[in-house]
Amino acid sequence: MNREFTYAMILILAAGLICSGPAAAKTYKIGVMIAHASPGLQADQRGFAKALEEAGIQAEYDHQNAQGDAAGAEAIAQKFLTDEVDLVHAVGLEAAQAAAKIIKDVPVVYSSVRDPVGAGVVKTLAADGGNITGVSNAWPIDQQVDLFHRMLPAAKKWGTVYNAGDPFTAKAVERARELMGQLGLELIEARVSGYNDIPDAAKSLAGKVDAVFMTPDPMVAKEFGAISGMCNENKIPLFSGNPNLVVRGAVAAMGTDFVQVGVSAGHKAVQILKEGQKPGEIPSGVAEHLILYISLKNAKKQGVEVQEEFIKQADRVFK
Q1: If we measure between CA atoms, which residue out of 166, 268, 282, 272 comes closest to residue 217?
Q2: Domains, the chain
Q3: How do residues 31-68 score in pLDDT, each as one tens digit?
């Protein structure tokens, strides 16, 4: 009798294990707030989701667009609190600022914010013990100046065109000027205040510079053709920090890629959700991988030969 009872219990337990199967993995609720609709910020979020998927994290996303409005962004942040999300991904300036202002206990990972400290998103890029960490898309000016100088060591006078009214651009130019000075180089600046100023500003560099380096300036990027045209006409090598501008005339560009910014932000979210770390224990940072594009076609137009060592380093070469 006891033996029959024991056998029956084994069958019942085995059946229960078969029916129940392995424990279901948790699905995390993640609130995604994008500052405004743009291909770059959307690519950022795709990179973020890719990083979580590759880490085996199941997530349910609530996508919200703040449309560049600070009040709207704060309302979205409040919504995420009401919905009790597990984590917030704040993409872009207004989104990150709203999340920092409204959300105090839920983990927040920001991305694509050029100056997170200056914008008040975090107090420091180091781990600060709070509930926010993230990834800046600030241009790596130090690495860019170093690379372009090594690519064109004979160039002693570099030119740039920029909108002096943009504080982020002005800061980048200041850093470039400082670094070039340390290398014994001179940076000749052509400042603009509007789109109509850009063609003349570009022409003013002709005959004065050996090469041109374009810093992060959204205004000038839209009129990049005027600058690349001047460089082609005068055989002046043109370099940029925006890889997308290589197809519009630059010889080479090294900088951040929005997808890579998102992937790096996603890795920080994995540290929080999967590894149990607190946001305040994770320093803010920049993208883990910088993109280098080179155009041999543009190099030929601008009278410069790109050495093989740099071609081998490039993520993409346009022939």
Answers
A1: 166
A2: 28-137+258-286 (3.40.50.2300), 141-255+291-318 (3.40.50.2300)
A3: 999 999 988 899 999 999 999 999 999 999 999 999 99
